[in-house]
Specification:
Blueprint lengths: L1 E7 L6 E15 L3 E15 L30 E18 L2 E23 L13 E27 L2 E25 L3 E2 L14 E25 L4 E18 L8 E20 L2 E12 L14 E14 L4 E22 L2 E23 L2 E13 L13 E10 L6 E10 L2 E2 L5 E2 L2 E11 L4 E8 L7 E2 L6 E2 L4 E8 L2
Antiparallel strand pairs: 1-2, 2-3, 3-4, 4-5, 5-6, 6-7, 6-8, 7-9, 9-10, 10-11, 11-12, 12-13, 13-14, 14-15, 15-16, 16-17, 17-18, 18-21, 19-20, 21-22, 22-25, 23-24
Length: 495
């Protein structure tokens, strides 16, 4: 498979070119074996990318209103990435019920950047009344990342207590090495930018100096995992599993206030999870689930050190029910989760993003109903409401909408069965970033029409942001205007 894409954007001067090649071959080895080999190459070039986001707020708390395509980037900036991945997988059937599988993959990624950041001396950043106040922070880097992954597992079905059950168990090991260099700047950095919005030719590319090492790091992750699906009774089913990990990291950072060398203690953690489903009736099923949260994080703090893995617990309970002879399906669920040390964007230092660890507790409810009006019409309505609080109980992660409502409806015309029409919509409550931008509650609508030209060919029209709503997103990092109304026409043909 080969893919090439050349795409402009509603954001000023932004252009993405992406080429990729994917090849895979598999074949039988003996009577019970299957060998698969695969290779992927991706070459992604992005011209005039915006590093960071927009600053829209003034010191008095009001917010600027700029064109949606406004950007802080310049014509000489780019962000290019080449990635190569090769893998080999072998499956072997031990018996009709049992199989073993071994997988090895290697990935190498090379990333090159020239970027400009609109840097404000104030904290939090804000615009002057005449929309000035930013300095240009130029940055150039080259990063190489290599990753090797080995995974061995076995899966199968077994009989116990007169019932059939399923199990999978495996062991994986991954090793990743990252090296990053950056360029010193001889002249032309931290110069004032003109009033925003400006064009892509207002800040000249600086004079680059010597290429020097910035950071390097190694990470090794060993994981033992196992899970089993149990048929406890005709109505009661269970799922029990665990992930046991051992994470070790080492590395160094050689810039600014970052530490000269960093050694990180090994992390070992066993994370269990479990779930139950119970069929109260053929049409009503309830479920309970518990999971232990443990996720290593690749973000750095302001001193260039990896943040510790985030830890926590998650609980969920719900019920699914079918009504009106299976014409209506409803789902109701409640959930709560606690995460300690979750990486949260905090700013930029030494030309790099840095993060801080935050404790977050979330709880909420989800309701969804999917109904089939007749053979040709279907409607889905979903509502999610949640609360996010910090360790002291106060509101946190205020850029996450607390209430969202999703609606989907589609129909096939009886007089023209080849044509299918549909609309989707999403409403979300207001969001904000303390000391930054805010967005009032808003509704986005989309529409589509799909026409089956033949049994193999389909023509599809998608219209996004049907009413051309202007809104701001990405508030956790600053602000980004959402895309205006746009349309895509696609012809699909199956050989």
């Amino acid at each position: 498979m080969a893919v090439y894409e050349d795409k402009d954007s509603y954001i000023r001067d932004l252009n993405d070119k992406r080429g990729s090649v994917y090849a895979v071959v598999d074949g039988q080895i003996g009577r019970d074996g299957m060998l698969t080999l695969g290779y992927t190459h991706q070459d992604m070039k992005q011209d005039s990318p915006m590093w960071g986001s927009l600053t829209l707020n003034y010191q008095d708390g009001t917010m600027a209103d700029f064109p949606r395509g406004s950007s802080t980037s310049q014509d000489w900036t780019y962000w290019d990435t080449k990635t190569d991945t090769a893998f080999v997988e072998y499956r072997h059937s031990i018996s009709p019920d049992w199989e073993v599988k071994a997988t090895y993959s290697h990935t190498r990624s090379d990333e090159k950047t020239k970027l400009l950041y609109a840097y404000y001396l104030s904290d939090p950043a804000y615009l002057n009344p005449d929309n000035t106040g930013a300095l240009g922070w130029a940055y150039r880097s080259a990063t190489t990342t290599e990753n090797d992954l080995i995974d061995l597992n076995t899966s199968g079905r077994f009989t116990a207590f007169g019932r059939r059950h399923e199990v999978i168990a495996g062991l994986s090991y991954s090793s990743q090495k990252t090296e990053q260099d950056y360029w010193l700047i001889d002249a032309g950095n931290f110069l004032p930018l003109p009033a925003f919005p400006y064009g892509g030719d207002v800040y000249a590319e600086p004079t680059w100096g010597e290429r020097v090492p910035y950071s390097d790091g190694k990470q090794r992750l060993a994981r033992l995992y196992a899970a089993t699906r149990l048929s406890l009774t005709d109505r009661l089913k269970g799922l029990v599993g665990l992930n046991a990990v051992r994470l070790s990291r080492s590395g160094s950072s050689r810039y600014g206030s970052a530490v000269a060398a960093s050694d990180y203690p090994d992390t070992e953690k066993v994370s269990p999870y479990a779930g139950l489903t119970y069929a109260f009736t053929p049409a009503v099923t309830g479920y309970l689930s518990y999971s232990d949260i443990f996720q290593n994080q690749d973000q750095y703090d302001i001193n260039g050190r990896y943040l510790d893995p985030t830890k926590g617990v998650n609980y969920e309970a719900g019920v699914k029910a079918e009504w009106l002879n299976k014409k209506l399906l409803t789902t109701a669920a409640v959930f709560t989760a606690e995460q300690q040390g979750l990486a949260t964007y905090a700013g930029i230092s030494g030309g790099q993003y840095y993060y801080e660890a935050k404790d977050v507790k979330s709880k909420g409810i989800e309701l969804e109903a999917t109904g089939r009006v007749d053979a040709n019409r279907k409607v889905t309505l979903g509502i999610t409401h949640l609360k996010l609080s910090g360790p002291d109980g106060s509101d946190t992660f205020e850029w996450v909408p607390r209430t969202t409502v999703n609606l989907t409806a589609d129909t096939r015309l009886a007089a023209l069965p080849q044509l299918r029409l549909g609309v989707t919509g999403r409403w979300q409550s207001d969001t904000r970033k303390d000391g930054g931008a805010h967005q009032d509650a808003y509704f986005l609508a989309h529409a589509f029409a799909a026409y089956e030209l033949t049994d193999r060919a389909t023509l599809r029209l998608n219209v996004n942001n049907l009413f051309d709503k202007k809104y701001v997103g990405g508030l956790s990092y600053g602000a980004i205007y959402g895309a205006p109304r746009n349309a895509t026409l696609t012809l699909t043909y199956e050989l």
